[in-house]
Structure formats: C-alpha cells, structure tokens
Write a structure and sequence with these properties.
alpha/beta; Rossmann fold; 2 domains; eight-stranded mixed β-sheet; five-stranded parallel β-sheet; 19 strands; 24% strand; elongated; binds cytidine-5'-triphosphate
Length: 396
C-alpha cells in the first residue's frame, strides 16, 4: 500500500506559471490514494482556474478566507486540522515572504499558521528574485522553522532566463510527501473492535449493538498514520481493512486470548470493543427448549481485557472507551483511574447515540486534561483521535 494512501494532502497553489504543473501533481497524488484539497491564492487563479483543480481533486477549491458559504462547510480551522501534510506548489516569492513573516492575510497563509501538519514548499520564480537577499532570508527563516524547501530546480525559465527558480517536477514532490513519516510511523498498534457474543446455547447468544465501525475506523486511521496494526474483532458486518492483520473472534474469552497472545511487543493498545462484562455460566450443549414459563440464566464475569493489559509491567500505552448514559466526565475519569489506562475516549450512549450510528462525538480524557471532539462521521473522528493519541503517546 502506498504511504500516501488515505492521507489528507492540502495543496496550496500561489501565483506563477508553474501552477499548471500542479494539475499533474493533483492527479499523481490521487493516483497514490491521497485525498486532496486545493487552496489557491488570488494570484494563482490568474494562471489556472479553480474549476480545473476542483475537477482533478474531486473537492471544492477554496480561494477566500472570508467566504461564508465555504466556511459553513469546512471552516478554515477545520481545514487546517484536516490536513496530514501541507504542500505549496508553486510557492511564489510573495508567498514565501508572507509565510516567513507569519502573516494571515489570505486563506493559504492563515492555514499555514493554523496547522500542525508538516509543511513543504516548492518555490518557483525568476532566478533574480530567488537569489535576492530578501527571498534568501525568508527561505532561511522558514527552514529554521522546519518547513521543507523543495528545489527550486535549475534550467530554462518561462521569462527566458536560465538559472535556479524552476519548480521541481511533481514526481519529486510526491516522493518527498511519501517519505514524511506519519505520527505513528512504525508503532505497533493493537485495536479491539465490535461486540462479543456470549453463547446461551448453540444458536443463541447475549450480545450488544456495537457495529465495530469506530474500532475499524481507528485501525485504518492508525495504519494511515504509519502504524503496524493488528485488529482483534468480534462479529461485525465490516470487511477486514486492507493492510491490517485482522483476527476474528466470537466471545470475550476468545478476544482476551487473542489479545494476550499478541500483546508482547505492542506499543499502543486501543480497546474499542464493546466486550460483554458477563457470560452465561453454563451454556447449554443443546438448544434450550421452551418447556418452562420462565428461565433464569446465571452469569459470571468475563476477564477485563483492558484492565489486564493496563496492569502489565512495561505494557503498552493504553486507550480505553467509556460508554455512559449520564455524568459522562465523572464516570469516565473514574474508569481512567480504576482501569489504569492512559487515555479514555468517552461518549454518551442510549437514545440513538453512538452505538450503530454513522456519527459520534467524544470527550477525550487523560490525567490532567481533556478535549471535546465534536460530532462528525466516525471515520473523520477516528483520524482526529489517532492524531491526539499519537501526540499523547509521543509525550509518554
Ligand atoms: N473492556 C475490556 N474487557 C472487558 C470489558 C471492557 O477490554 N471485559 C474495555 C472496553 O473495550 C472499553 C472499556 O473497557 O475500552 C469499557 O469499560 P467497561 O468497564 O466495560 O465500561 P462500561 O461497561 O461502559 O461501564 P461499567 O461496566 O463501568 O458500567
């Protein structure tokens, strides 16, 4: 799988004849499996129309900072958060200067201030402008802040001169973006997902409404962030994610066994499964017949997988889920302490919330802090969660 597969690439295009080459860049990025959103400066629209980039990227193109209609869809801060990587190609002398100064005088410059994603720029301009001490100082300042400067290449220029200032070729930009390590590069992640089914007899079970969507989305987002992912899944209707080792289990004890057999060497454990706390003590060997008016089933406790993993000596960084119907924060904090995990993702359940839904909103809690992630599709939420988890994991 390409390392750009599933990645969110924000492409900034500033004014310059090389803007036409960025059309090819969008095509190549999409072919590599990336999702691309294009932001153009006003100058750029004089060279290539937003419509071209819209058709190539499959997403609306943004040009204005104060565009009420666009902001109603994905606001500029959301767009800045959306990006896994930012690349500006071509980057004009003017844009480099504005970035170096930290100006926020248009959408693209504002996004560069508001994002935590790595930024790369591919300068393109007349050679004298490139060699001007002002430009050189801005480039140095950007480099010092961790911005990658790609090129420029040398050669014949659109203005008829010869020298440095040509934008590097789109393939070189792709190669650079693909080589940037993700926030979980090489981290070994184990995710549990879905419900468990606790057998009552050979045909009946105790179960719950978990669809597995959140856990699967987390496994995919961790994979896209560079992790080596194993998914231990209860029975769900979802296909195994590509590039993720998927182990299917039925009940809590099988899930427990599958997790404990693989936990050695795992760096990060995410317990997204809705594991049954109890199972029938003695499941019937044959189908239970309705011979009595009532039926009493004795239940016994299942092993608590999360608590056991969190208690391991030199165990992984652990992330638990808390599904609560009331007092979300208080109950979730209590769970954080009781289970001894490093992070808890808490959400409200009941009344059509969370379970078996396309969207969710959560409260992320750790010792000493919390963050609310607003209601959104589970895939988008999973990406945000993985970004936050990666940050806390790195600080651990
Ligand atoms: N969990 C687990 N093994 C279990 C039970 C739960 O790994 N046998 C994990 C879940 O995957 C989830 C967290 O623990 O990450 C949820 O904790 P749990 O105690 O099940 O919480 P609730 O059932 O939501 O709450 P409680 O039982 O405290 O009412």
């Amino acid at each position: 799988m390409s390392s750009l597969s599933g990645q969110h690439i924000l492409l900034g295009v500033s004014g310059g004849i090389a803007a036409y080459k960025s059309c090819e860049l969008v095509r190549l990025l999409r072919r590599a499996g990336a999702e691309v959103r294009v932001v153009m400066t006003r100058g750029a629209t004089g060279f290539v129309t937003p419509l071209s980039f819209q058709a190539l990227s499959g997403n609306p193109v943004r040009c204005e900072l104060f565009d009420p209609e666009a902001e109603a869809g994905m606001g500029h801060i959301e767009l800045a958060r959306w990006a896994d990587k930012v690349v500006i190609a071509p980057a004009s002398a003017d844009l480099l200067a504005r970035l170096a100064l930290g100006l926020a005088d248009d959408l693209l410059a504002t996004l560069c201030l508001a994002t935590t994603a790595p930024i790369a720029v591919a300068p393109a301009m007349n050679r004298v402008m490139w060699e001007h001490p002002a430009t050189a100082a801005h480039v140095e300042s950007l480099r010092g802040r961790g911005v990658t400067i790609l090129g420029p290449a040398e050669g014949e220029q659109a203005c008829g001169e010869e020298g440095p200032g040509r934008m590097v070729e789109p393939q070189a930009i792709i190669d650079h973006l693909a080589a940037i390590p993700g926030p979980l590069e090489g981290v070994r992640v184990l995710v549990t997902a879905g419900p468990t089914r606790e057998a009552l007899d050979p045909v009946r079970f105790l179960g719950n409404r978990s669809s597995g969507r959140m856990g699967y989305a987390l496994a995919e987002a961790a994979r896209d962030a560079g992790a080596v992912v194993t998914l231990v899944s209860g029975p769900v209707a979802l296909p195994a994610p590509q590039g993720v080792e998927t182990v299917r289990v039925e009940d809590a004890r099988q899930m427990h066994e599958a997790v404990m057999a693989r936990i050695g060497g795992v760096d990060l454990f995410i317990a997204a499964a809705a594991v049954a706390d109890y199972r029938p003590k003695a499941p019937a060997a044959d189908k239970i017949k309705k011979t009595h008016e009532g039926l009493t089933v004795e239940l016994v406790r299942n092993p608590d997988i999360l608590a056991e993993v969190a208690a391991l000596q030199e165990g992984p960084f652990t992330v638990g889920f808390a599904a609560e119907t009331s007092d979300l924060e208080a109950h979730a904090r209590e769970k954080l302490e009781r289970k001894g995990c490093d992070l808890v993702v808490a959400n409200r359940v009941g009344e059509g919330l969370a379970f078996d839904q396309e969207e969710n909103e959560v409260l992320l809690l750790w010792r000493g802090g919390s963050e609310h992630l607003p209601r959104q599709p589970k895939r988008a939420l999973a990406r945000q969660l993985i970004e936050r988890i990666a940050r806390r994991y790195a600080q651990d």
